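To fix ideas, we now present one chain and its tokenised fold:
***
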Amino acid sequence: MSHPGSGSTGSDGSLPISSIAQTLPAPDLSPLETLRSRGRMRSAIGLLGPAFVAAIAYVDPGNFATNIAGGAKYGYLLLWVILAANLMGMLIQNLSGKVGIATGSNLAELCREHFPRAVSRGLWVQAELIAMATDLAEFIGAAIALNLLFGVPLFPAGLITGVVAFGILGLQGRGYRRFELAIGGMLAVILLGFLYDTLAIGADAKGVLEGFVPHFDGADSILLATAILGATVMPHVIYLHSALTQDRIAPRNLAERRWLLRWQRIDVFIAMGIAGLVNMAMLIVAASLFHDAGLTNITSIEAAYAGFKDLVGPGAALAFALALLASGFASSSVGTYAGQVVMQGFIARTIPIVARRLITMTPALIVLAVGLNPSRALVLSQVVLSFGIPFALVPLILLTRRREVMGALVNRPITTVAATVVVAMIIALNAFLILDTFVI
């Protein structure tokens, strides 16, 4: 016999009303409250993710090229540049993520809404050019990794990278969580690869500490510093991060927005902290293995791979190549996603993702097809990216300081000042680079 409130079925095999009520979520719970009802641990994990997607762009193949070249040529000299770039990245990604939570729109959409049409279109054009420079680094890096690991020629390896990027991005259509987990898994592969190499190679503790003291060693070191900055603070993920947070968990009121914003800061701190450690490990490994041994002319990823293999062993070389492959695959899919966000936001239009990817990957395929030095192209692409940073950062600052845009989550004055200083430093670095290259 069935008793009221028991879990047994009725005479017709159906569940009692009380049991049905226990299996359904309360109708007045918001998405955030529903997530929090799952328990502290599950809700905490569920609130993390967007910053990990953004962080993969901070450890893309361009970082491999610039950090390896910087460490081999200048030892630990530019460690402070990586630290500064990572702190800048934390501030920038916090602002970008806040845009989506506070407004329910992404940065590109807000630019179209609040800026003159000519300005918005101009920002869109330069963002598309930056997307091509981004693809150059990502496709070349993954192609080099496939060549090193499996002997695949560079041009076919670039095509394979495109196919894999589409496959990873396809997870987005099955829900944001699967895509976030896939990207997070690849970030873990990159971290473990360099953790293994760091432990296998070791480092000079005194030299590492001295590397955090800001200084340069000639114009070439400034060029590499600018490239490191461009490889670390990525313009396309400034736009993307706001899209990742804008409708992920829809807040019902200001209190929920503030709660999401607190967790967004935690998300950024953890993800960007991991990215910063990976970047520092790259430079430290190159400085310890190559610079300290007098091999200061290691400027290509292929030469670095050979150096790992000859000086440390196949295991270290394999860890390096696998980390590079994971970086190339993950960052290329994130780059495609960012490109869609930029186009849809700025001009309210989209094109088939295959067509878009073919357009932006063309420069990278040309480099691979004609036999240009891929590692040199990687470093130069990061310099180009550094020039694109202000065009994403200035709109971000202008919009996040406006109360009519951000409401109660508008920037504090000190936040706006700090972000402005960051932009001024980047512009000054690039101006010096132009003068040194073309005038002096």
